[in-house]
Amino acid sequence: MRRTHAVSTTNTIQHWINGAATPGASTRTAPVWNPATGAEQAAVLMAETSDVDTAVVAAATAFETWGESSLTQRTRVMFRLRELLVEHEDELAEIIAAEHGKVIDDARGEIVRGREIVEYACGIISHLKGGYSDQISTGIDSFDFRQPLGVVAGITPFNFPIMVPLWMHPIAIACGNTFVLKPSERDPSASNFVAELYKRAGLPDGVFNVVHGDKAAVDAVLDHPGIEAVSFVGSTPIAKYVHERATASGKRVQALGGAKNHAVVLPDADLEYAANHLTAAAFGSAGQRCMAISAAVAVGEAADALLPVLAEKAKAIKVGPGQDVGNDMGPVITAQARDRVTSYVASGVEQGAVAVVDGRDLKVEGHEDGFFVGPTLLDRVTKEMDVYTDEVFGPLLVVVRAADLDEAIELINANPYGNGTAIFTGDGESARRFQRGVHVGMIGVNVPIPVPMSHYSFGGWKDSLFGDNHIHGPEGVHFYTRAKVVTSRWPHVSRSVEAAFNFPTHG
Ligand code: NAD
Q1: What distance in angstroms lies between residue 238's CA and the mean position of ligand 1's atoms?
Q2: How far, in Å, CA of 136 to CA of 300, rounded?
Q3: Residue 475 and residue 315 in contact, taking contact as beta carbons nearer than 8 Å
């Protein structure tokens, strides 16, 4: 069955500022492609500095009242937003499939995982609870609480057009901040849709703003003196750049970068289970997930047993337009992304890897101009090959062989990325050694894509995260607020206490 989302070719996607679609000052646009057909389906406005400034002014004005709103008021908006996200799941999934290219059910998956962050934000009263110490010293009580920062910004990648922004803004807004989102210019429509849902949920105008654009808009965000904090998710070089530039302008920054996620398969693992999950984790969303498994580390005799099963499963994947129900995998995001993946496969083969399954020549009937690459499986990849050292971000799984678990852990720890990793094993002792030994932020034990649920925070180590706080969950609340501690004494209770010139030591 064919589903369609109507995007007219004359459609120009506008910014969303102060509660309304806004044309902005700049008339520069970028194309929004339909990755399944290769056709331009819309254009999106590219903001210049003045457009970002308009959004920040709207957000700063809205902060004057939103920052003073009660936790109950904020919670009510989040509950309504949650219901609207449920009600409009079909429409949102189609918008995502049309612009990103992923299959409808996968788009639904990201909506559900993003919605869970809104559910977490519905509990903001509990998450913002401070501590209180009665009589911490004689006649003295202490308590702490957290306050919002002001205007905060999010800059997000193309691969999860709704979930990654939802990692940020519900928590920031529930904490009392106002928000400027600069989503990916490649699939911008979901952000405007969410802005409309916020408005219907009762969020005051100016609290959530969307500014579309590229480097010019990002630089304007990073330099803007009215923005207190920046959350970024994207590739490592840009994450590093964002972290350096925004911290230099005095902002609090969390910048999540790219990944090379390894899955270790031990000989004692259930190989059928491991192969099923590895295949889905490597090729789901055409490998364009920051938590995709891109390197399988087959330990000892696991390699020869695993390879034929993996190959069979990779060949069985049904590739086609994301909007056609029944496909497992859609296209990659752009023609350049497709060419990048195929050139990495070519370089791997040139450098000595064995192409067990080669998706470079895949043609999808009726969609010959779409940005498709078939699932590709390379064996005997070594840690020197470009296909191993670089994040390829496509439907490519490389298999590296390791003699034992220690060698597998060493390999992972030598890699500059540290986002996610997984182990497939039936042995608790090996799993425990693995989870304690790897220098990686998110670890799965027989779970290939261990994206933490909303009550935990998401973040990698090493080149996968610049800054201190992980995103969403408790660290998200921490990131979007600053703490105060109050120490109080009421003189009529402790009249006898003398003022002292030495540093106060209380008993
Ligand atoms: P990207 O780095 O190209 O773009 C991310 C954002 O940065 C976009 O909003 C884009 O407009 C902006 N940008 C791009 N180039 C810029 C430049 N030169 N200067 C300033 N801003 C710029 O990433 P992408 O291709 O959209 O997304 C894929 C990448 O994101 C992959 O590397 C993936 O691993 C990573 N990612 C990481 C996580 C995580 O949680 N660690 C999650 C999702 C995606």
Answers
A1: 7
A2: 59
A3: no
In terms of residue numbers, what domain contains 99? 12-257+464-485
164 touches ligand 1 (CB under 6 Å): yes
Longest CA pairwise span in the chain (Å): 89
**Is 149 within a domain?**
yes
Decide if 298 is inside a domain: yes
Three-state secondary structure readout of 34-85: ECCCCEEEEEEECCCHHHHHHHHHHHHHHHHHHCCCCHHHHHHHHHHHHHHH
**For 256-298, how does the pLDDT look when each residue is reduced to its tens digit (9 = 90+)?**
999 999 999 999 999 999 999 999 999 999 999 999 999 999 9
Residue 150 and residue 285: Cα distance in Å, rounded?
35
Beta pairing, strands 252-256 & 151-155 = unpaired
Which residue's CA is the nearest one to ligand 1's atom 26?
157
Q: Which amino acid is at 97?
A: A
CB of 223 sitting under 6 A from ligand 1: no
Q: 3-state DSSP call for residue 299?
A: strand
β-strand pairing of 178-182 with 396-402 = unpaired
- The tens digit of pLDDT for each residue in 486-503 reads 999 998 755 566 788 888
Q: Of ligand 1's atoms, which has the minimum distance to the CA of residue 242?
A: 20
**How far is 259 from 393, CA to CA, in rounded Å?**
9
Closest CA to 481 of 249, 234, 252, 184: 252
The reply to whether 373 and 308 lie within a common domain is yes
- 359 lies in a domain? yes
235: closest CA among 362, 417, 113, 64? 417
In the predicted model, what is the mean pLDDT of the chain?
A: 96
Alpha carbon of 159 to ligand 1 centroid (Å): 9
Q: Which segments of 355-399 does DSSP mark as H helices, in order?
A: 386-389
Q: How far apart are CA 213 and CA 315, in angstroms?
A: 38
